[in-house]
Amino acid sequence: MERMETKKLPTRVEVALNYITGEIANGNLSPGDKLPNEKELAEKLGISRTPIREAMKTLAVSGLIETRHGHGNYIRKDEGTAVMPLMMFQLYLQDSTPEMLMELRYIFDRNCAELASIRRTEKDLAVMRESIDRLKALSGDPHSPIDKLLEADLDFHRAVYAAAGNKLIVVIADFVLNMVAPWIRKSLEVSGRYRAVGLHEKMYAMIRDQKTGMLSRESVEANMEHFMSSLKIPAA
């Protein structure tokens, strides 16, 4: 993939995401802690409550926070949650761009997909298949909530990571996926909800048929190219 240098100003949603994840990285928020409410965050960041709400949805889908209805939002403390990697790595992401994160994701997706092709089980394939079928059903309904589409999309990629059969790779790859989740969401909103199904089917077929090498890379690159075009990310 070609190197990209474009730097974009953060959206209001990204401002909220960066603040919350930064607080975790700096140790001001720990697993189990309650987050400030929408009004408090909006006043502190100088933005409206709408982007705060969107950021909370993204963080919830990504598995970093949990919403307890009537009580507020909390940093998750479940075993396996990517909070600790986030605390170690987030400091290096303060000046990152969607392009930089996408390139990082490409490295993991490409290699995880190839390992999954070699090591996948029938159970792994069943989880991938269910995620695609769910994404397909949601894509066919123009009124489907975007968060449900994002959840199905992320579930597919997590199933691929799990099929790679290496717990260390799974934790790091899933962490990178969490970080790009806001832009995957935007891609689905812009133009991805219909084409996403076909792209995931292509990757699934490659893993099912245990294809490796160039055939493996082609399916991942198709996903990445669509991601870039959806967000209008220019090639260098």
UniProtKB/TrEMBL annotation:
InterPro entries: GntR_C (IPR011711), TF_FadR/GntR_C (IPR008920), Tscrpt_reg_HTH_GntR (IPR000524), WH-like_DNA-bd_sf (IPR036388), WH_DNA-bd_sf (IPR036390). Keywords: DNA-binding, Pyruvate, Transcription, Transcription regulation. The keyword DNA-binding applies. SMART domains: FCD, HTH_GNTR. The keyword DNA-binding applies. It comes from the Bacteria. Residues 10-78 form the HTH gntR-type domain. Gene3D superfamilies: GntR ligand-binding domain-like (1.20.120.530), Winged helix-like DNA-binding domain superfamily/Winged helix DNA-binding domain (1.10.10.10). Pfam families: FCD, GntR. PANTHER family: TRANSCRIPTIONAL REGULATOR, GNTR FAMILY (PTHR43537), UXU OPERON TRANSCRIPTIONAL REGULATOR (PTHR43537:SF5). This is GntR family transcriptional repressor for pyruvate dehydrogenase complex.
